Amino acid sequence: MRFDPKKLSKTDNYKLLIGSVLPRPIAFVTSLGPNGTVNAAPFSFFNVVATEPPLLAFSCTRKPGGVMKDTARNILNHGEYVVHIVDESIVTMVNETAVEFPAEVGEAVQVGFTFADSEVVSVPRLAECKIQMECRLHQHLALGGTEKEPNSDLLIGEVVQFHVADELVDRGRIDTMGLRPVGRMAGATYVKLGELFDIPRMSYEEWMEKKEPK
């Protein structure tokens, strides 16, 4: 089937996107509200975008009327935040933070997370998360929609400090099976790690040798 996105509603395009780009990693972000309240919210439009310096990007879709979400507004006002990786041990609590709490209510405390002081930024980390990345805002882009009512806010942050649980670090690498990360699928569906497999990357010479008839 063919779909012309210009002829579809925003909702229909959204369904095609989240049902196609799978699985999606989840950024669980803490930020500081104007009254000092720690806001926590998950975002599944998220990925690595650079390594020198290390940059992470996630997108906050705006509310009706082009209204920014609390996380985006907090980061633009404060310039600092923390990105946590979601794993099986915390996914239920993370999901609960997606409830539309009032702006002055700290979701993290309400659902049972514990704060830990960050070392570089002023925004607290969440102690229950196995991977925490302190970030400073690198760039903000308002995307889509119209000039007056953008569809989303793309926030790119520089990681200024990594925190990784000791048991997950093996010779500088992350133990994926030990982390047990969780991703988002379409709708309310999440995904756990399934079967893992390796495919070595070949050089051009190796590829040519493989393609030559025996």
From TrEMBL:
Protein name per its UniProtKB record: NADH-FMN oxidoreductase RutF, flavin reductase (DIM6/NTAB) family
UniProt cofactor(s): FMN
Record has Flavoprotein as a keyword: yes
SUPFAM superfamilies, sorted: FMN-binding split barrel
Domain Flavin reductase like: 19-175
GO molecular function, one term: oxidoreductase activity, acting on the CH-NH group of donors, NAD or NADP as acceptor
Matching SMART domains: Flavin_Reduct (SM00903)
Keywords linked to the UniProt accession: Flavoprotein, FMN
A Pfam family matched in the record: Flavin_Reduct
Protein family membership: Belongs to the flavoredoxin family.
